[in-house]
Each structure stands twice: as C-alpha cells, then as structure tokens.
Amino acid sequence: MTLLLANPANPADPVGPTLADFGKDPLWISIIKALFIFVFLMMGVLFGVWTERKLISRMQHRYGPNRAGKFGLLQSVADGIKMGLKEDILPRTVDKVIYILAPIIIAVPAFLSFSVIPFGPMVSMFGVRTPLQLTDLPVAVLVVLAMASIGVYGIVLAGWGSRSPYAVLGGLRSTAQVISYEIAMGLSFVAVFIFAGTLSTSEIVAAQAEGRSFALLGLDIPLPSWYAVLLIPSFLIYVITMLGETNRVPFDLPEGEGELVGGFHTEYSSSLKFAMFMLAEYVNVFTVSALSITLFLGGWRAPWPISLWDGANVGWWPMLWFFIKLVLLFAFFIWVRASLPRIRYDQLMAFGWKVLIPLNLAWILLVASFRALQVPQGQRNLAMVIAAVVVVGCLAIYFWFDTVNQRRREARAEEVQAEFEQLSTEPTAGGFPVPALDLPHYHGVNGRKEVPSGTN
Amino acid sequence: MPWLSILMGVPVVGALAVAAVPKGNAKLAKQLTLAVSLVVLALTLAMASQFDPSGARQQFSEVHQWIPSFGVHYAVAVDGIALVLIALAVVLVPIVVLASWHDAERSDAKRSVKTYFALILVLEAMMIGVFAATDVFLFYVFFEAMLIPMYFMIGSYGGAQRSYAAVKFLLYSLFGGLLMLVAVIALYHVAAKGTFLQPELIGAVTDPATQKWLFLGFFIAFAVKAPLWPFHTWLPDAAAQAPAGAAVLLVGVLDKVGTYGMLRFCLELFPDAAKFFTPVIIALSVIGIVYGAVVAIGQTDMKRLIAYTSISHFGFITMGVFALTADAGSGATLYMVNHGFSTGALFLLAGFLINRRGSQYIADYGGVQKVAPVLAGTFLVAGLSSLSLPGLSTFVSEFLVLIGTFERYVVPGVIALAGMVLAAVYILWMYQRMMGGPTAESVRGMPDLNLREKIVIAPLIALLIGFGFFPKPLLDVINPAVKHTLTSVQAPQFTPAIPAAADQKGPGE
Amino acid sequence: MELYVPIVVLAVLAAGFAVFSVGIAPFTGPKRWNRAKLDAYECGIEPTPQPVGGGRFPLKYMITAMLFIVFDIEIIFLYPWAVAFDDLGVFGLVEMVLFIVTVLVAYAYVWRRRGLDWD
Amino acid sequence: MSLLAFEPITSPTIEYGTLSPMLLVFGAAIAGVLVEAFTPRYLRKSLQMPITLLSLIGAFALTVWQGTQGVREAAAMGAVAVDGPSLFIWGAILLLAIVSVLLVNDDDHFVAQASAVPGSAEEDQALSQGGAHTEIYPLVLFAVGGMMLFPASNDLLIMFVALEVMSLPLYLLCGLARRRRLLSQEAAMKYFLLGAFSSAFFLYGTALLYGFAGSVDLGAIEQMIGTHLGQDNLLYIGIAMLGVGLLFKIGAAPFQAWKPDVYQGSPTPITALMASGTLIAAFGALLRVFWVALGNLDEMWQPVFWAVAILTMVIGAILAITQTDIKRMLAYSSIAHTGFLLVAVVATGSLKQNAAALGGILFYLVAYGFATVGAFAVVTMVRDAGGEAGHLSRWAGLGKRSPALAGIFALFLLAFAGIPLTSGFFGKYAVFAPAVAGGATGLVIVGVVTSAMAAFFYVRVIVLMFFSDPAPEGPTIAVPSMGTAAVVALSAAATVVLGVFPQPVLDLAHSAAQSLFVR
Amino acid sequence: MTTHYLVLSALLFAIGGVGVLVRRNAIVVFMCVELMLNACNLAFVTFARQHGNLEGQVIAFFVMIVAAAEVVVGLAIIVTIFRTRRSASVDDANLLKY
C-alpha cells in the first residue's frame, strides 16, 4: 500500500528514466535527437499521406496511388515537389504579414510537442547514456497542450489574415471547435495524473510499467497496468477529442467543402504555404497519437505477450513497440475517416460541450473519490459518501434529462399526429386541391416547439 | 425636583402636540402654543422663587451620564446669570407668540401655521437648555441645534430675501460652531479629565499657548453668535428678513448665548488667555459700539436699523464682560436682559407698523403719532430705553458697564460714551421721521394698537420701566454669580478653582 | 532551465524549415499575373470587400471563447490538485468537489440560458 | 525547479464555522444562480427575494453570535482574520445590504432586458412583458460576499480576490438601470475600466511587497519590515501602488473621479449599496493593510495620507457646490466624507490611541452608511416622467408638495452636515476627537472648515426644498413600496437614534476596536 | 539574473498603464489592463523564483482566474455599449453630461 503511494518512478525496472535523468545531455546529443525527431516527422508525413490514401482506397476497393514509384510510394514526394514548383499566389486583399506568418505559426508548435514524447528507455548513444526522449519536464503534458493552443493561433490568424468571408468563418469555426475539444481533452488527462501523480511523460510511462492492486474491504483487486484499460472512459473521451482536436473526420468541419470551401486555408490555394498546413495537420495527428500512447497505452513499453521476454523493454527495442503503436493508431484514424460521415457543426459543438465535459467531470470526481479510499490517514467514509453522491447525482441528472427529452419527443409526435388528423378531416386544404401549406414536413408550423439540436 | 428638565420637557411635548394639531385648525395650534409657553413661564417663576441668591452657585443641578465613552453628561444647573437669561427667554416667548398671532398667515408664501409655532416651542426648549447646560459638550449640542429651528423660521416665514438671510445666518453660526467643536475636542483632550463637566474643567488647561488657542476657538464662535464687529454682517440681514417674532427671539435671546458663552466659558475656562486678549476684545467692542451706531443712523429700513443698534449694544455687553470688573460684569449681564426687553419691544412695534403699512422703510412713514398715538408712544418708550434714558432699565446696565470699564480702561469708556450720543441721534431721528411731522398719505387711517397688541407690548414696557427704577432683584441674583466668575478669572493659573469645583460636585442640593 | 534547451534546439530546426520553405516559395514557382487569380475566392463572384480586422462576427464565438476561458481555468486548478492528490487526500477531494460543483452551477446556468446551443 | 516541485505538501485546514457568515452568503448566491437556471420566469423573483433576504439575515445572526462568542482568530490558515473589526464591519455591511436589498426589490429600477439595445423594438417588447433580470439578486449577494471578505482578508492575495469578487458584480449592476440606460452603461464601463486599472495597481503593489517580504501575509510583511532587510525600493513602490488601489476603492482624491459618474449613472439601489457597503469594506481593508502590514512604517505613509485627506475633503466639498444633479451631489459629499474618515486613519499612535481611532471610524461608517442609504432611498421616490428626478431644480418646493418626505431628506442632509442631535454629528466627533488626540489637529481644522463648506450645499438643497416655490408640473412623489418605506423609516430612525443615544453603538464599536486587528 | 524578468514585467506594466491612459478604444484600454495583470504575474513568478517558495506561482494562478473573470465581465459591458452606440438611441442628450 505504501509502495503504491510512493513516487511512481518504479524501482522495479532500472531502465525507465525519471525526471532526474534529463537535462544531462551534452548539446550535440540534443541536436542529434532533435534532428532525429524532425526527420522522423517529415518522413512520417510523407509516408503518412501515402499510407492514408492507399489504405482508404483499399477500404473503398480502389488501388489508390500506384504510379510514382513502387506501390506509388513516391506519390507524396511528387506532390511535395509539385507544390514547391507551383505559383505562389498572394491575393491582393490579404493582410500580407499575417498571411505569410500563419503557416509558420501553425507548423512550428506541431513539431515542438514531440519533444516531450518518450520513444524509449535509457540507451547508450555514442557512449553517452541518455533516455530515448528529447527532453522531459515536470510539466511535460502542459507543454503539449500549450503547443496545441499556439497552433490555434495559426488557424485563426490564417483565416483572419486572408480577409475572405470563407476564410474568416472557417478560421473562427475551427478555432471554436479546437478550443471546445481542448477542454474535454484536458479534462480527460486529469484521471491519469491522479493515478500517475506527475505530469512528466517519462514518469507517467513508468507508472504504467506494471499493474497495481486496489485494496477494497481488505481484499486486493489487481488493476491493469495501462491507463487505457484502467481509466477506459478517459481514454475513450480522449480518442474522440483527439479526432476533434486535429480536425479530422468526422470532425473536419473547417474544410467542409460543401459549406466553406477550404475553410481557413481557402486562400492558401497552393504552394508550400499550403504544404505547411498539410504538414501541421499530419504532425498533429502523430502528436496526439503519440500522446495517447504515452498517457494511456503504456508508452514505449511492450504489450503483454512480448513483455514476457526480458529484453523487451531494454535498449533500442522499445522504439519499435512505440512505432508499431503509432502506426496502428494512425491506421485507426484512417479507418474512422473511411467509415464515418462528417457531423453537423451544431451537433459537433453540442457533443463537445453538453456530453463530453459533464461526463468528464463526473468521471473525474468518481475516480478521485475511489482513489481517496486508499489514502491511509484519510477518512474513507467521507470519500465513500462523496463517491455515492457523485454516482447518484449523475444517474439522477441523466434520467432527468432522459425523461425530459422523452416528454419532448412524445409531445412532438402528438403534435404531428394531431396535424395529420386535422388535415385528413379536410382533404382539400381550404377547398383547393393543393398540398396544405402547414403540412408537417413544412417548417415554421406555428405553435411547434423547436428542439435545440444536440439534446439527443 | 428636576426643574430644568421639566422646563425643557414641557415645550418639547407642547411642540409635538402643536405639530399634531390637524392641519386646518390653526387657531387651536396658536392657543395651545400660548398655553404651553405660559405654563413654562409659570414654572420658571416658580423655580426662580426657589432660587437662593446667597446659596450655592449652581442650583437645581442635575447630572446624568449621557455618552460615557465621550465623557459627556446631561448636566444642567443654573446660577444667577443663567437664571435671568432663562427668565428673559421664557418671558419673551409668550409675548412673541401673541405678537406673531397672524404673522404666519401674513407671510407672503402660504406656510403651515402650526409648524411656525411648534418651531417657537422647540426653540424655547433649546434656549433654556443652552443656558442651563453645565456640560461643555451639551452646551455645544444645544448651541448648534438651536440654529435649525431658527433657520427654518427665518427661511420659511421671513421676508423677500429670507432664504438668502437664512443661509447666511446658518453658515456663519455653523462655521463658528465648528471651530468651537475643534476647541471643544482639544479641550477634552488637553484637560485629560475624561469629562466635559464645565466645573471640573475650570483650571484644567494650564499651558498658556494652548489656552490662547482654545480661547480663540470658543471666542470666535461666540463673537459670531453675539454679533461682535467684524463678525456681525449676518445679523442685519437675518433680523431684517425674519418675521418680527423670530427677530425678537433671535436678537433678544439667541445672540445672548454668545455673550453668555464668553462669560461662562471663555472667562472661566481660559482666564489667562482671557486676560491676554482683553485689550483686543475691548477694542473690537468699542469699534462695534461706534460702528453699529453710525451705520444705524444711515439705515432706511427700520428693522435693519434696530439690528445695527443692537450690534452697538452688544459692543457694550462684550466690553462689560471683558472689562473684568464686578460692576462691568453684572452690568453686562443685566444689559443682556434689558436689551432683550427693549430691542424686543422695538422689533415688535416695528412689526406692528409693517403689518399695517406693509413696508419697513422709514421713508414710507410720517406723522404716525397723530393717527396712532398709543403705538407712537410705546415706540418712543422702547426707543428711549434703547438709547438708555435714565429711569429706564437699560440705563442702569449701561451705567454699570461704563463705571466698570472706567475702572480699568478709560479711553474705551470715553469712546463708548460717544456711542451713547450717537444712539440718541439714531433713535430720535428715526422717531421724528416716522412718528413726527405731517401725517403721510400712506399712514392715514392707520389703526392704533388693538387689544392683542396692547397686551403684547404692555408687559415689556412695564418691565423696562420697572427694572429701570428697581433693578435690585435682578442684581441680587446676578452679582454673586458674576463675582464668582470673576474670582475664577482672577485666580492664579497654578491653583485651579478647587473650592469652586468642590462645592459643585454632585447633583444639586 | 537546461531541461528546456533541447526544445529550443528543435524549435530552431522547425522554425528554420518553415521559414525557409515559406520563404523560397515565391522564387521556385512561375509568375503569371492574372487579376482574377489575385482576388479572394468566392466561388467566382465578385469578392465582398472585407473591412480591416475581418469586421464583426457572431457574438456566439465570443461566448464560446468565454466558456473556454472559464473551463480552461478550471483545468488549471485540476492539474495541481490531481498531481498532489495523494498528499491532499480527502480534504483536497472535498474542496475540489465544492469547486467543481460551483463551476457546474454556472455551467447549468449557461446551458439553460441556451448559451451552449448553436442556432 | 524540481526541488521546489517535491516539497512535501501537508493538507491545510479551513474553519468553516468561523467563516460561516460569508459562506452562507456565497452559498445563497450560488443557490440564486441555480434558481435562475431551473425555475420558470414567473417564479424567480418570488424565490430570489426570500433567498437573498433570509441568507443576509442569517449571516447577520451568525455574525452576532460569533461576536458574542468572542471569536478572534485568523481562519483558513491565517488567510482570513475574523477579529473584532471584521465582525463589526460584517454586521454593518450585512445590515446595510439588507436595507439596500429592500430597495433593490422595488420594481422599475432595473432594465428588463440588458442585452436589448435601448430604444429598440425588443426592449419595448421586454418592457411590455414586464420582464426583469432577477440575476440581480445573486449578483448583489456575490458583491456582498466580496465586501465581507475584503476587510477580513489577512493576506494580500485574498484581499485582491475579494476586491474583484466585490467589484465585478457591481460593475455589471451599474449598467442595469432601466431609465437613462446609456448613462448607466457608460457608468458601468467607466467604473469597470478604472476599477480594473486600479486593481492592477493593487496587484503590482502586492507583487512588489511579495518580492520584499517573500510572503503576502500581512503579519509576515510587518515582521519583515520590522527586521528591515534590503530591497526598500521594492517596499516603497509597492506600498505606493497598494495605496493607489485602495484609495481608489474608497474614492479618495486624486482617485475620486469615478465616484460621481458611477453614482449618478447606476441604478439608485445599487448606488446606495455601493455608497454604504463598498465604502465600509474598502475602509476596513485600507486600515488592515496600513495598520497591520505597514504599521511599523507609519511615519512614512502618514504625510501622504495628510495630503490625501486634505485634498479629498477640499475637492469633495468644493466640487459638490457646483453640482446640479442630486445623485452627483451625494457622490461628491461621499467623497468629502471619505476625507473626514481619512482624518482618523492618520491618527495612529499608542495601541489605545489606535483603538480609539478605529472605534471612531467604525462608528462613523455605520452612521454615514445608514444616512446615505436613506438619502438614496428618498431619491428613488422622487419620480419624473423619465424616471427619477435627478436635477436639483426639480426638487424645488418639495417641502410643500410632500413635507414628510422632504423633512426626512432634510434630516439626512443635516446628518451629513454634522448638525448635533443627528448621527452625523457624533460620527464627526468620533473621528475628530481621536485625530486631535493623535496630534492631527491641523487636519481636524481643515476638516471642520471643509465641513462648513459642505454644510453649504446640503443647506442649499434644504433651501430649495422648503424655501423656494414648487416648480410647475414638478416631480411626482412615488407612493413608496413597503420596502422603500421601510428603508426610509429605518434609516431615519437610525439617524435620529444614533444622534441622541449613540452610546450602545459606540460601546460596540469600541469593544470591537479594542482588540485591534489580529495579526 | 531574475532582475531581467523584473525589468521586463515593469516594462510591460508601464506599457499597459500608458496604454490605458492614452488609448481611446475601450477594447484596447481593456487589453492594456490585462497586460498589466500579466505583468504582475510575471513579477510574482520571478519573485517566487527569487525566494524559492511556491507562493508566487500559486498567486499567479489566482490572478489568472481574476483576469479571466474580468475579461468575461468587461467584454460583456463593452459589447453592450458598442451595440448601443451602433443603434439610434433615444437619449443621446444624456451623454453630454460626460
């Protein structure tokens, strides 16, 4: 029990770096690592695009790109070159400085978030013993969130700078969307921090090294090691928000071709500026995936069957596990894109604000009160009471809403029914053989209560 | 028996009763007021009859804690000086009530009549309180609170310029009062006796410099109140604009508070400072005497004229107070009373005239004595008393003041004599212009004094003449008190007036 | 501080790349001037002139921003609490329940006032 | 960094019992928000009103109870000092808040639909529906809660937070007047911008003091000043900025500019609340900061306060004379009274002396608070076609049209002027006496001179009401609602009673002041 | 070396203060106020560093909230005013008082 509450960096495995192991690298090591991350991400984008197109077309029984290079592997390289060689259009109306600055602002932070992602344990690099992670901070996760927020500036400035209605609206919309989902995202981490007791990514990974046991009424219930399993609601919410955060399907509202053409980058019609947005989008996808791996999926540690092998979590191997997890998550993104339709904007916001956030808060309280049960000196009864209250309260609210909505639906149905009857009694509406103007499928039938969307 | 509390309580209760009188019924209100004031008069006489001139200095004294944390007491008592002044007040009030029977209606703007009379009663209570208070703080409270009813009487019932006059009056007094407040606070702090009881504070302030400052604080307030040149400018306006009755109370009683305060507080609390400042004050009062008289001569408005005469008279009073001789002191005190009667009579008669003619300008009158002999006659008597003709009460007091002054300050005395001469000029000239000569068209058919007015004026004339020949009863009451005061002034500063303080400890006897 | 050095390194790298690629874009491509091409895109119609600063936009977005601030602040307070949870124990739990409930009250108010609905 | 991060954290404690009055008020405010959220419109007012009043009364009862228990402790890890002065101030604020709420409850002061543009169709519609913002009640409660926390806060951070909790609702409430909405909105904006500006100064001052002392706890700062080590410039600049923030809140010159505009623009009930509650709270905070934290330094800040006090009194008294709007005039008079109060703030010295001064200030605050609330209550009753008859000329001859009302108003004015037998007189005495004892006689003389000046414009209003003839089609006197009538009666009673028998309240104030401020 | 931060925060504060005094646009004034608050935050954090205690950093949190609350209230007020001004208002006359 006391061990359970001790500093999460797990003594049981020596390779797991802790905060203490960072900030010792000589500069050149840092440069090497940084370069590696940079190249890794660039390659990731190039082949990520290719993978996406290939995979999605396979899911749609198409071939996808298969001309440039073997299996069209060079497709996105070609695209990149094309973008570079296209004319760089600078529309007359735009606010030049912001217009040019925006792509940079959006691209740079995307890279930076990766600096706190742990790729692996301590290894010896050119004789220097160093963790496979650029750096780690006591507030590492906050860095990721901060970078995400800075990225938002890029979006809004891009829309703002290119003075066209579509762009402005697109920018505003995607900003609103991103910040809305950022809240849910931030909240979904809290449970993790409660258990890990730290914000440093490396230590969170270490905390997921092996499952602990939860002592209730004397008997020890073993808990799974990955927070994805232990805190499954948090994980699910995070997965949803990570789609919203990166403007991916089904939340890719900003460039809803139907309504807003290209959204905030409408005016960035071509060339490398547009490439920056593409880049940023994909890098963000990788970032959120990597973050979910770190916080929920045990980080670079090998999953169960492999972890039986002693060498699994030592040396350079873990990078492989990390990479596999990353690819799988990316594939998941693509899968979602292939299978889900885009949802309406109001539904998107309603979902974010009215479902994710309250759920999250309730869940946090629940986790906290259960966790409080284990504080030895704390009065457990109080914690239990709180837990009970939370549960009951949530259920009560849920049922209340349910009944309310139920009533609304019924009332609505009755209205429609009544109108049908009223019409059926008078087949020729007002004596003329025309469809009555107040047929239920017309909007604006007076006296009809409009249901705010999103209240399921 | 708590005489003084009763004396204060009765008018207050009366005032409430009057205020409660239903709106239409003005007559009842008046009668009620008159009755109350007469009751108060009776009570006062009863009390005075029990006053023992040779007895303890402070009599009928009551002392109760009021605000312990400030060391403030509800402490009242009377010595000879206070007694006669209270008597003056309670005598004047019924007369005023009767005199201004119709004033409230007649004032140009329609005002509620009962309010006017209620205010008179409230004022009476406060006048009694201010003279009776032996607690500096209590005195200050009454001193300031008195302003409000008078302010409303002038402001709502006065003449054309009334609101200007009222505001001027209030602000002047308030300003002086606030300076006095500082002095009061400082006195409490310096004396460090933890109490405001005046007898205990005597001799408490020993440091000369402090004494001088505190003295100034008090004195300026009193100088404004008893219009001493150059603080007098509010009086002519106020007196001229106030309705006759209010003017009588204002000049006749309220202003006496100033001179009374000088006698009671400036002298007793700060004897050395008093001595130090005496020359200045004497000078000021002499200037006041002459200035008042000269300006009075130049007046065309009789109320203003009377006001200026009283400025001159107050010069005499302050001179008497600060001559620091027994005769001058008792003379000054006596003067306060007599001046109240004589000026009161003058104002009332002026009021009668104005009510008849509707103008207060001397030029509008002439030859009144043919059409209204009684009016003219009484006016003459009052006027003569104002120029202190031998045989009239004012003569005695003025004589005493001059005697007392000559003992110490000859030159001022001589100049003051000039004031008497001037007095003769302005009074007689006014009489001659108004009453003598051919009867002006405007005053033809002017009715003579009716019964009410006769009843009003008779007692005043009687008092003037009576005390003129037989001032002894007043002097008997006054002298010991004045002597006592002066002893405390003469008392060397190092030995506070322990005996004085001692035999006044404890409530009454 | 040295913990942050690597981030700076990476930042320099990324910024260099971004600036470079945005910078060379005008020179790599051809230049064919065409008036219509330089207009803001509005499906081919004459573009509506936009005032500096994008003009006024729906208040709705401001409200969203406000709510975002509110909840972001809440998160700011949740994180330290979560990290120090085991030390604070039940006291921390109680306080946080009070805090969250308070925020939820405001949240309910906004919800009922239709502050969360998008027309 | 990391060595900071891993300090062992011991879980703090909070004395809920001691803080119960404040907690009750805040809780009621939150309950009010819930009511807003979940009850139909027609029910809200009938729910909000009792919640507000009952909670305030309950808080008052709790305060009294604690006073009788003799609670004197620094609660919540020494962040909130519940000592004699705090309890007294709480009681005063709560009483005045109750009275003000009675005013607030009166109809037709507040806008029907704040978001509706003035003169627009939707406003007319909202008016015709007779809707009104019942959010006002929770806002008032929040403000009152802030007022309670402000003077009780024992460290600068809490003080800052309390300052904002007090101010923010007031900023909003200022903008909700039903009539003359543009004025009201402008008042809100000015109040907000200036208030935020000043609170920023307060905060930076706090930061500098923190830099000096390494803590924002008042007691700690005092000790640090006692053992005076280094970084004095931080200290002095910090004090100056702190002073700016606080002096702004009490509206002392040269930071008084907001008062007239805000008082005139905002709904009169809110003006009453601000003029009474905010002033009291801010004064409590000012005293706590300058007497507790900077007590050892008084020879440094006293000269400044001399200047400020004189300036405030003079500006308040002189500018008030030129005013033509009754609310503006009252605002300037409140500035002048702030000056009078500052006179006693300077008069520090021995413990006994401090206690005397503190007691005087507390008494003055109560006396002035009641008088001013009553005055504004009367102002709400003198109506015109366009709402309240603000302009003085409209008040001409009020004494004839409704003597009672004019008489009561005159009473309040006389109390402001400090005429004996009204509360104002003893208030003045209570602050001037310790000032003289504390060697600030010069200030006191300036004080009496300015109060003579001030008396002039009070008297002028009386002249207007009683001695000048009523204006044709003058303002109508609204038949007072129960609430307003109660307020006027209560305030008048308080003014007279405090003017004749101040002893009990004086005792209370002095006993509260005896144990000065807990460190 | 923390003095640099102090100087910076002082500069920011001064800029904000000057901005409040010289700018006319309410929003800009308001932003300047926020800038001042953030300058305070910087000072707090720096001092916390200097004194080696966490108090200052915690205070920064609270200041953030207050700033947020101020933003909410302030923007509400300012937006209302702007909407009013755009509209034809009945009682512009009253504005002359200010």
Automatic annotation (TrEMBL), chain B:
Its EC number is 1.6.5.9. The chain crosses the membrane at residues 6-22, 34-51, 71-101, 113-131, 137-157, 169-191, 211-231, 238-254, 274-298, 305-326, 332-354, 374-403, 409-431, 451-470. The keyword Chaperone does not apply. Coiled coil: none annotated. It is a multi-pass membrane protein. Keywords: Membrane, Oxidoreductase, Transmembrane, Transmembrane helix. Its main location: membrane. It comes from the Bacteria. InterPro entries: NADH_Q_OxRdtase_chainM/4, NADH_UbQ_OxRdtase, ND/Mrp_TM. The keyword Transmembrane helix applies. It is found in: Endomembrane system; Membrane. Residues 133-418 form the NADH:quinone oxidoreductase/Mrp antiporter transmembrane domain. GO terms for molecular function: NADH dehydrogenase (quinone) (non-electrogenic) activity. Belongs to the complex I subunit 4 family. PANTHER family: NADH-UBIQUINONE OXIDOREDUCTASE CHAIN 4. This is NADH-quinone oxidoreductase subunit M. It comes from Sphaerisporangium aureirubrum.
From TrEMBL, chain C:
The keyword NAD applies. The keyword Flavoprotein does not apply. It is a multi-pass membrane protein. GO terms for molecular function: NADH dehydrogenase (quinone) (non-electrogenic) activity. It catalyses: a quinone + NADH + 5 H(+)(in) = a quinol + NAD(+) + 4 H(+)(out). The chain crosses the membrane at residues 6-27, 61-82, 88-110. Pfam families: Oxidored_q4 (PF00507). Keywords: Cell membrane, Membrane, NAD, Oxidoreductase, Quinone, Translocase, Transmembrane, Transmembrane helix, Transport. It is found in: Cell membrane; Membrane. Gene3D superfamilies: NADH:ubiquinone/plastoquinone oxidoreductase, chain 3. Coiled coil: none annotated. Its EC number is 7.1.1.-. InterPro entries: NAD(P)H_OxRDtase_bac/plastid (IPR023043), NADH_UbQ/plastoQ_OxRdtase_su3 (IPR000440), NDAH_ubi_oxred_su3_sf (IPR038430). Belongs to the complex I subunit 3 family. NDH-1 is composed of 14 different subunits. Subunits NuoA, H, J, K, L, M, N constitute the membrane sector of the complex. NDH-1 shuttles electrons from NADH, via FMN and iron-sulfur (Fe-S) centers, to quinones in the respiratory chain. The immediate electron acceptor for the enzyme in this species is believed to be a menaquinone. Couples the redox reaction to proton translocation (for every two electrons transferred, four hydrogen ions are translocated across the cytoplasmic membrane), and thus conserves the redox energy in a proton gradient. This is NADH-quinone oxidoreductase subunit A. It comes from Sphaerisporangium aureirubrum. The lineage of its organism: Bacteria, Bacillati, Actinomycetota, Actinomycetes, Streptosporangiales. The gene is nuoA.
TrEMBL record, chain D:
It is found in: Cell membrane; Endomembrane system; Membrane. Its EC number is 7.1.1.-. InterPro entries: NADH-Q_OxRdtase_suN/2 (IPR010096), ND/Mrp_TM (IPR001750). Residues 153-453 form the NADH:quinone oxidoreductase/Mrp antiporter transmembrane domain. The chain crosses the membrane at residues 20-39, 51-67, 87-104, 158-179, 191-213, 233-258, 270-291, 303-322, 329-349, 361-382, 403-423, 443-467, 479-501. Its main location: membrane. It is an enzyme of class 7 (translocase). Pfam families: Proton_antipo_M. It comes from the Bacteria. It is a multi-pass membrane protein. It catalyses: a quinone + NADH + 5 H(+)(in) = a quinol + NAD(+) + 4 H(+)(out). Keywords: Cell membrane, Membrane, NAD, Quinone, Translocase, Transmembrane, Transmembrane helix, Transport. NDH-1 is composed of 14 different subunits. Subunits NuoA, H, J, K, L, M, N constitute the membrane sector of the complex. Belongs to the complex I subunit 2 family. NDH-1 shuttles electrons from NADH, via FMN and iron-sulfur (Fe-S) centers, to quinones in the respiratory chain. The immediate electron acceptor for the enzyme in this species is believed to be a menaquinone. Couples the redox reaction to proton translocation (for every two electrons transferred, four hydrogen ions are translocated across the cytoplasmic membrane), and thus conserves the redox energy in a proton gradient. This is NADH-quinone oxidoreductase subunit N. The lineage of its organism: Bacteria, Bacillati, Actinomycetota, Actinomycetes, Streptosporangiales.
UniProtKB/TrEMBL annotation, chain E:
It is found in: Cell membrane; Membrane. Pfam families: Oxidored_q2. It comes from the Bacteria. It catalyses: a quinone + NADH + 5 H(+)(in) = a quinol + NAD(+) + 4 H(+)(out). Its EC number is 7.1.1.-. The chain crosses the membrane at residues 6-22, 27-47, 59-82. GO terms for molecular function: NADH dehydrogenase (quinone) (non-electrogenic) activity. It is a multi-pass membrane protein. Keywords: Cell membrane, Membrane, NAD, Oxidoreductase, Quinone, Translocase, Transmembrane, Transmembrane helix, Transport. NDH-1 shuttles electrons from NADH, via FMN and iron-sulfur (Fe-S) centers, to quinones in the respiratory chain. The immediate electron acceptor for the enzyme in this species is believed to be a menaquinone. Couples the redox reaction to proton translocation (for every two electrons transferred, four hydrogen ions are translocated across the cytoplasmic membrane), and thus conserves the redox energy in a proton gradient. HAMAP family: NDH1_NuoK. Belongs to the complex I subunit 4L family. NDH-1 is composed of 14 different subunits. Subunits NuoA, H, J, K, L, M, N constitute the membrane sector of the complex. This is NADH-quinone oxidoreductase subunit K.
